[in-house]
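Dear colleague,

Following up on Tuesday's group meeting, I ran the structure prediction for the four-component complex that the binding team flagged. I've pasted the input sequences exactly as they went in, so you can double-check that nothing got truncated or mislabelled along the way. The C-alpha cells for the whole assembly follow below. Feel free to forward this to whoever is handling the docking comparison.

Inputs:
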Amino acid sequence: MSTMNDVALRAGVSLKTVSRVVNGEPSVSEQTRQKVNAAIAELDFRPNSVARNLRTGRIDVVGLVLPQLSQPYFSSLAEAIMREAERHGLTVLIELTDGDAEAEMALVREHGPHLGGLLMYPVGLSDAEARTVAGIVPTVFMSERAYDAPVDRVAMANREGVRALVGHMVSLGYTRIAALGADHSDLPERSAAHLRLDGYRDGLRDAGLPCLPELVIDVHPQWSRQLGAAGVRRLIERGTSFDAVVAFADALALGALHAVQEAGLRIPAEVAVAGFDDTDEAGYSYPSLTSVAPGTAQIAREALALLNDRMNDAAAQPAERLVVADFELMVRESTLGGTAAWGGA
Amino acid sequence: MSTMNDVALRAGVSLKTVSRVVNGEPSVSEQTRQKVNAAIAELDFRPNSVARNLRTGRIDVVGLVLPQLSQPYFSSLAEAIMREAERHGLTVLIELTDGDAEAEMALVREHGPHLGGLLMYPVGLSDAEARTVAGIVPTVFMSERAYDAPVDRVAMANREGVRALVGHMVSLGYTRIAALGADHSDLPERSAAHLRLDGYRDGLRDAGLPCLPELVIDVHPQWSRQLGAAGVRRLIERGTSFDAVVAFADALALGALHAVQEAGLRIPAEVAVAGFDDTDEAGYSYPSLTSVAPGTAQIAREALALLNDRMNDAAAQPAERLVVADFELMVRESTLGGTAAWGGA
DNA sequence: TAATTCTTTGACAACGATGAATCTCGGTGC
DNA sequence: GCACCGAGATTCATCGTTGTCAAAGAATTA
C-alpha cells in the first residue's frame, strides 16, 4: 500500500498538499492538483481510513443493531439500510443481539463509543437504557415503541396498516374477521402487538362491525409460523365461525395458510388470509399472500437521514423526532383469488 | 472517552505499562497489574481499536462479500459467519455486490487493502481476478466453483447432496424424476448448476435408471421461484410424464410446489418435490419441503478457521486448501406425506 | 516604492495506541 | 567489593492522516 507520503514524494509536493487534494479542499492551484492526481493514479493510492478516523475522530462506520438476520424482515431491512448508507458515504457494521435485552446494552457499551452512529432495532430496552444509549453515541431507533428519551425514531404505520387491511377484507364482503397475533402478556404499552390490535379494532369500527373477543387470537411469545398455525387450529377446534384472518405478521399468516388448508378450507373462497410485513415469501406462498408493505425503503432512507443529521451536529437538532413510514397494501391471491397476482410483489 | 494516558495518570504508571496490562503481556508485577486494572475499571476505559489497528497494521475486521442479503440462504450464512467470527475476536463487515461481477472487483479493490481478511461468495470472478483478490488480502472463497488461484475455498457437497436426494426419491418408489435447475448456457465448468446436475445423473445411475433429456429442465438466468414454477409448467404443458421433481434450489422447489398444485396434482401422492439449501421456508411451505441442508454452520466454522490461519501467517500455509462441508437430508411432507414433519427443521 | 493583502504551500504537532531500545535497581557470583 | 544479570518499568519513535500556524510569493493598494 502506498501512502500519502509516497504520493507527495512522487508529485514533488508536501504531504499536506496531497491531503488537500484528496479532500477536495480549495486553495490548491489547478496545476498542482493535476500533478498530485496523476501521482495518485500512478500509485493507485487510497487514503487509509483507519488513520483518517484516528486523526479526525469522525468515524464513518455506523452500527446496525438487530435481533437477527435470518428473519426475512430484518435481512431486507438490513439490505435497504446498507444501500442507503452507501449513498451517505457510510459503512454499516451489523451486530446481532438474538433479541436478548442484555446483549443489546452490552453491544452498545462495547462498540458504541467507537462508532460514528447507531441504528438500533431495540427489543428489550427500557427508557433509562435508551437514554444511556443516546448518551454514548448518536442514535436512531427503528422501533414500534416510543421511548422516554431524547432519541430520533423511525416507525412503521402499524395501526393504520392493519386498519386498512381490515377495510380491505370488509370491502370484499368478509365480516367475521379474526385477528391473529394479539398478545396480552406484559408487553409494553405501545408495542407492535398492541398497535396492530388497535388498528384491527379501528378497522372494525370503521365498518360498523363488533369486535368479538372470540375472534382475537393471542400468540405468545413470538410471531412464528408454528404459533400462527397453532392459533388458527385452536380457532377451528373451538368451532368459532370465521371467514377471514388478519395476521399481524407474515410469518403468522403463512402458518394460518397452512392450518386453514389443512382443515380443508379453500382460500380465499371460504377463508381469506392476510399478513403484515410483505416479506418476499408473501409473494410466493401458496396461495400468494395479501400483506401490508411497511415501507422498508423509506424507513431506511429516513433513518439514515436522521442519523446523518445527528452525526453532523449532535446538539443542534431537535431532541426527539419521529418519522412514520407510509405503508402500501399488497393485494394477492389469499384475499382476491385468481392466479394472476402470483409471482410478483 | 478515556485513553490509555488517562489510565496511566490515574494509576501512576507509564502509558506503556497500561498497554502491557491491557494486552496481557508478561513482566508486569501483580501489584502494578491490579493498580492498572482498578484504574481501567474506574474510568471505564476501552482500548481504541482504530488507534490500535493503525499502529499494529493488524486489522480485526474481515469483509464478507455476498451477492445479497435478502435471500434466505445468504442471510443465514451471514448470521452463522458473524457468530463464528465473534469467537475468533473478529468483526464482520458485510458488503453486497448484487451479483454484479464488476462490483465484486470494485469492492475488493476499494476496501480490500484496509481489511484484515476477506470471505467472499464470488459470482462472476475469473481465475485471473481471483488471483488478484488473493494478492490484495488474505481470502477464503465460499464457492461451488474451483479457481485456478492460490486461495482457500469452502464448498458444499453439491454433487453428493443431489445424488442423495435422487436416491431418496428412488427409495420411495419414484422413477420418472425430473431435474429442475440445469443451465446449459455459458456457465463455467464447475458451477453449482453443473455439479448438481452431475449429482442428479449419479443418483439415476446408482439406481440403474436412464437419464432422460426431456426430464432435465433448464432454468436461466437465475434460480427463482417464478422460473421454477415456469419450468414445471412447461413440463406439464409438453405432456411429459413425471412423478418427482428434484430442484437444485429451494426457491425453484417452492415454485415447483406452486405449479404442481396449480395443475391439480397432489404432493407427494402424485408428484414428489424436493429442494436444496434447507432454507427456513422449506420447513414451513405447504406442504413442507424435503431439502438438502448444506451444512451452513460447518461452512462458517471452516471458512473462519481457514481465514484465521491465513491472517496469522499468510506465507506459511499451504496454498490452496479445500473443505467440503457435510450435508444432511431433511425429509419432510413433500416427499414423505403426512403432517407430522411440519413446523420444524 | 513600500505596505498590505491574498493565494498557495509547507513544517510541525497530534490523534491513541504499540515496538524497540533503554534505564533502574535489587540480587548473584566470584 | 565489583561486575553482571534480569525483571519491571520507562522513554522515544512511529503507524498515516489532518488541523494549526507560519512562510513565500504574487497581486493589490496607498
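Residues 339-345 of chain B have pLDDT under 50 and may be disordered.

Cheers,
M.
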